[in-house]
Amino acid sequence: MPSPLDRSLSRSTPPQDFSRIDSVLREAVAGGDVPGVVAAVSDRCGVVYEGAAGCAASGTAMRPDTIFRVASMTKLMTSVAIMMLHEEGRLDLDDPLAQHLPGFEQPGVLVSFDEETAAYTVREASRQITLRDMLTHTSGFGYWFLNREVLREANGRVNLFGAPFLMHDPGAKFSYGISTDILGLIVEPVSGLPLDGFMRTRIWRPLGMRATGFELPRESARLASLRRRAGDGFEELP
Questions:
Q1: pTM of the model
Q2: In the annotation, is 49 catalytic?
């Protein structure tokens, strides 16, 4: 016999008026806040509202099933993969990063940096970087667009996996950086599946994320273009 919870979850959601959301979306486009926008509302019974306004690309209207580039939301997916492997006992969050990344050599912590010559000095870190540090962005790894020293040292040729130095000791503080990019390298040797294969079979398919992947979709008409502000409007980027 179904439990009270089962029965409550199976009940359909009563009709609701979402016209105000439609108005907000249209106003956001008309006011120049966004070129296009998609919104959805769900409760424990499922999706109860989907709406869209504006343009996905030149001559293409935004639709509820428009596909967007998710950028750093891939960090969430990678972190989920690592936590799944942790739950399965294949790794521990306090394992040193080097334990699961053969050949990894931990860089030193930045002490001084000469902006003119890009010469710098480092010292040995207080301890090894752990997987927990990587997940919480407390590893010390920086980002070229946030840390001028990293960009200057790279001379514009940024290597995601060859950081010259750490910005601080592991665990000392939060600093947004390339930690999750490096975590992605661990998934294959630990799981036996490449990163995209693990995400596809273990995360995306079970969740019904049929349009999610590392490659551009075949249905190019569904893809929202990249935009940036230009004057009072937006311009498309390659």
A1: 0.82
A2: no
